[in-house]
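tool_log.txt
---
The assistant was asked to compare two proteins side by side. It first ran the structure predictor on the initial sequence, then on the second. Raw inputs and outputs are pasted verbatim so the downstream comparison step can read them without reformatting.
(1)
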Amino acid sequence: MSTYVSKEITAELDAARIAGLKKTSRLRVEFGDNTFKILRLWKDSFTVEAETTPQLRGLVDIFDGAKHLYQCLIIADDDEAGEMRYEFKRSTAAADKAPLDFYRAPDAPIALLGHED
């Protein structure tokens, strides 16, 4: 017994799956001044909706709500079932402060308090 699903039904199922992913995802990718919803994120790639998102390439920023997660260099990989997959050539975790160029002991004081004579 073989099961045949028409192209129209397959397209409707893909659209429903993508709508569900868009509704539950807080992740987004920023490319220049444009923002697009991320449907799924892995450690080496992510997917966006292929139909509404233009071709992305180069340096992008990935956010979870308002929190900046990564700055990534991406390339297009695969278009399957309405999702465009992009792979990371480089992915750097975003930090909220500049990196230190010296070692700070874990028990070091935050500030020095004193008085002037």
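(2)
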Amino acid sequence: MSTKNLYSTEAKKKIKEMAESIDFTMMATNLKNQPFHVIPMSTKEVDDEGNIWFLSNKTSEHNQNLEKENKTQLIYADKGNFEFLSIYGRAHISTDRNRIKELYGSGDDAWFDGEDDPMITAIKVVPEDAHYWDTKNGKVLSLLKMAKGAVTGNEPDLGVQGDLKV
């Protein structure tokens, strides 16, 4: 796998592309303690600055953890395409009703009583450190290339990975 570190605009574009296409992430909070708290979250948006937005219940354990310490780790994985993204950053909880309404979708009705539910908060994660693994060919072809590499002794070109510096 080759390495291609991305910076500024390219890094923000890559975060947006991968986070929105993979959608679900595992959000880890309470990072100072073991075991830390982990919960699946659906990405609502990645803005032009590379910030990742989620909706959450204000009384949730992860919101409580983020109020104490706003550090978080996001782990995105698309095993079907062998694409992975890890983001460490700082989370900020917002109760801005306009922002919540912008992020809210009909699928959120499963979790909230409509976009005016007073329990909804928006979480903005500002990336501080990120790394990606992006195969060129998807899972099946990558597995075949790995098998060929094992037989021939040649390292297969499986795709690209690198740091994302926003």
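---
observation on (2): The radius of gyration is 18 Å. Helices lie at 8-22, 61-68, 97-103, 138-152.
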